[in-house]
Design goal:
mainly beta
């Protein structure tokens, strides 16, 4: 009833208000200069792009190398990697029951990695692939339900949440359990840590704040529930004293980090779209300066003002991949394989390049990107066909296609001048 009332109240306002250029509503109607290069057919998911300025090179001189794998604002930028793509290590684990797991992330340490296996065992590997410790804190019943874990690290303590409603704190040195709690609903997001607390979103679209010392809840903020479950993780970021998160209905919300009070909220989807959330996916939120950037698979790429939630611009790009910010550019790849370079300030599309033209028309219908990372001069794009496509950053030209696995690959992770990818049964490391 509340949503119906809001709908009619909003409709009444729209029919009587003037066109305010700074309004969140009317900003969505701004036209992007290259709209003529985009053609939408049948529905929102089926979109055809034409290449644009494909022979123009991007000016990427003197770009900063961030070389980090964790960031409160998800602004990873360009990572250091020389690009030899020579396989040197396999960190092996028991295979997952389902082979379509793409949204998995190892925890990278200076002396190794932490990951998990099909039964939820947490494994700390050394750099020479030896197991330092392996711990499992699940019952027999839970082990059969394919636990899916997310990690975050503070000093020598490992925070773990899963899709079975559990939250743990573990000693990094020996894997021993410090405490274990249980939530009412499974968790479905990345984890962010700030001082003595951490933040995570559950499947009921509730942002929860916990104290690290004992797992007690500081506060929670509930957004609208959904009747469907998505396989992709919800995203959150922290900027100053505010935590920003987007739920699987497309509602972007800003919450005061200390008190849990609402700062602002911006719904990005209509009621009609919210009724079909089973195939709705957002990218990760990325923040730089005064803005948040993100996209979804409903042909919307947003720039949002951090302070008040107003829309700076929207462009017609369908992508569930995390965008990467480089100088004045935003780089993203659409769900049907087009590389985009976007002007960060105005949202104008500078360049469109068709990466998937290396596939036949029949092949590309089955191919979807799973993630990408950027080094000093190359883009590394992974796909659900087990292939890694190496692209020249400046030109957008495909340099090489490498077969890594028989099926879906995780996003490529660049860390400490190495490239890592997860296939079913192993984390593979390349120099």
């Amino acid at each position: 009833m509340i949503r119906i009332f809001i709908f009619f109240f909003t409709s009444l306002i729209l029919t009587n208000c003037s066109l305010n250029e700074n309004s969140k509503i009317w900003n969505k109607k701004k036209k992007i200069e290259v709209d003529a290069n985009i053609k939408i057919i049948f529905d929102e998911k089926q979109i055809i792009y034409n290449e644009l300025n494909e022979n123009i090179n991007l000016n990427l001189s003197k770009i900063d190398i961030k070389n980090k794998i964790l960031d409160d604002k998800n602004n990873f930028g360009v990572q250091n990697y020389s690009g030899k793509l020579k396989k040197i290590k396999n960190y092996k684990f028991s295979k997952f029951k389902y082979e379509n797991e793409k949204d998995l992330t190892p925890l990278f340490l200076k002396d190794g990695i932490i990951f998990f296996d099909s039964k939820g065992s947490i494994i700390r590997f050394s750099n020479n692939q030896k197991i330092i410790w392996k711990k499992n804190y699940y019952s027999k019943f839970e082990k059969k339900n394919n636990p899916k874990l997310s990690f975050a690290l503070l000093d020598k303590k490992l925070v773990v949440v899963d899709n079975l409603s559990n939250v743990f704190l573990i000693n990094l040195e020996n894997g021993n359990l410090i405490w274990k709690k249980r939530n009412n609903y499974p968790f479905n997001s990345e984890i962010k840590i700030n001082d003595d607390r951490f933040f995570v979103i559950d499947l009921n679209n509730v942002l929860r704040c916990y104290f690290i010392r004992d797992g007690s809840e500081c506060w929670n903020y509930e957004t609208e529930k959904t009747l469907t479950i998505t396989n992709s993780k919800n995203s959150l970021l922290i900027s100053e004293n505010t935590v920003y998160f987007i739920n699987n209905l497309g509602d972007l919300t800003a919450i005061d980090l200390s008190s849990g009070a609402l700062v602002w909220q911006l719904p990005t989807q209509s009621s009609e779209i919210k009724n079909i959330t089973y195939n709705f996916e957002n990218s990760k939120l990325v923040s730089e300066g005064k803005n948040i950037f993100f996209s979804n698979n409903k042909n919307e790429f947003y720039s949002i003002d951090l302070k008040n939630g107003s829309i700076n611009w929207i462009n017609n790009i369908s992508s569930s991949l995390t965008p990467i910010l480089i100088k004045n550019f935003i780089i993203t790849i659409s769900d049907n394989g087009y590389l985009f370079a976007i002007d960060k300030e105005k949202g104008n599309i500078i360049k469109i390049k068709d990466i998937y033209k290396i596939y036949s028309n029949n092949q590309r219908k089955k191919i979807k990107p799973t993630g990408f990372s950027i080094s000093q001069d190359k883009i590394y794009l992974s796909n659900n066909d087990g292939k890694l496509i190496i692209i020249e950053l400046k030109t957008g030209n495909v340099l090489k296609v490498e077969k890594i696995a028989r099926n879906i690959l995780s996003k490529p992770f660049l860390y400490n001048n190495y490239l890592f990818m997860i296939k079913n049964g192993a984390v593979v490391q390349y120099e």
